[in-house]
Design a protein that fits this description.
disordered C terminus, 47% strand, mainly beta, four-stranded antiparallel sheet, disordered N terminus
Length: 270
């Protein structure tokens, strides 16, 4: 919520009501907080330690999502106008202008995934399209249309890039699809309820999915199959992250819940 954001130098405006705030927030490896999705169309970097504003860019359109690589060395931001901006994040922060602006979506960018090992950024949109570009040159590697991603209605809600197997996981509506980097479908599964988010399990052999009805399930990826289901959250799951031996789950009601992980990465908790 807007009340949870503060800055030592200037007040932070509220999030635009039509956007999912967790998708528009990213954290770098050195602890900088990148915030978008704001009503004034700005993108800002804040220091976790001091709350000082480190960087700001003004846009013509609201930023809809943001992600960093695991190393924190790359930041990608998606926008309402369908573009994706790529930013290197160095010791001195973020440059004034993005070295690459990626085009191809005909609607709001709704999901991003970045991978240092593969050197790739994947973007999904409300148009159902998934595009994969190189991080350094911004060259288009793969384009998956809506009829292939199964995101004809409602668009792409979540993406993941799997470095060990060079695969792309696409979540859209009530479908999970795993693609090879050449665009071939490796596995597909119809899931119960609309997906809202997903994250790779620690060993990258499973994907943990959150749902609009509060459910939280893990699926193996070779092939896609239900592994386990945790106790449902009391509200829609908006974001999930892996922290040491636990899953941290954020809900639309503002709750943060912790779920246990077993020795194989996931375990049933009910």
């Amino acid at each position: 919520s807007s009340a949870a954001l503060s800055c030592a130098e200037a007040p932070i405006p509220p999030f635009a009501p039509r956007h999912c705030a967790p998708r528009a927030v990213a954290i770098s490896a050195r602890g900088d907080l990148f915030v978008g999705g704001l009503v004034d169309c700005s993108v800002r970097a804040l220091s976790f330690q001091s709350g000082a504003q480190l960087w700001r860019e003004n846009r013509a359109h609201v930023l809809s999502c943001a992600r960093t690589t695991a190393s924190g060395r790359w930041l990608a931001t998606g926008s309402e106008d369908g573009t994706v901006h790529l930013w290197p994040v160095g010791d001195l922060g973020v440059p004034d202008e993005p070295p690459a602006v990626l085009h191809g979506h005909e609607a709001t960018v709704t999901a991003l995934a970045l991978c240092d090992e593969l050197g790739l950024v994947a973007s999904g949109g409300a148009d159902g399209l998934v595009l994969v570009h190189t991080l350094r040159a911004g060259a288009l590697v793969l384009a998956l249309p809506a009829d292939v991603t199964r995101a004809d209605y409602g668009g792409v809600c979540a993406l993941a890039l799997v470095p060990r197997t060079a695969q792309i996981v696409v979540g859209a509506g009530a479908s999970l699809v795993v693609f090879a980097i050449d665009g071939s479908v490796l596995s597909a599964l119809a899931v119960d309820g609309p997906l809202s988010t997903l994250v790779l399990a620690p060993r990258h052999d499973a994907v943990v999915c959150g749902f609009a009805d509060g459910c939280l399930r893990a699926y193996g990826m070779q092939p896609l199959a239900l592994l386990c289901e945790w106790v449902a959250a009391p509200a829609a799951v908006m974001c999930v992250c892996v922290a040491n031996d636990a899953l941290l789950v954020g809900t639309i009601a503002g709750d943060v819940l912790s779920y246990g992980l077993g020795p194989v990465g996931v375990r049933l908790v009910r």
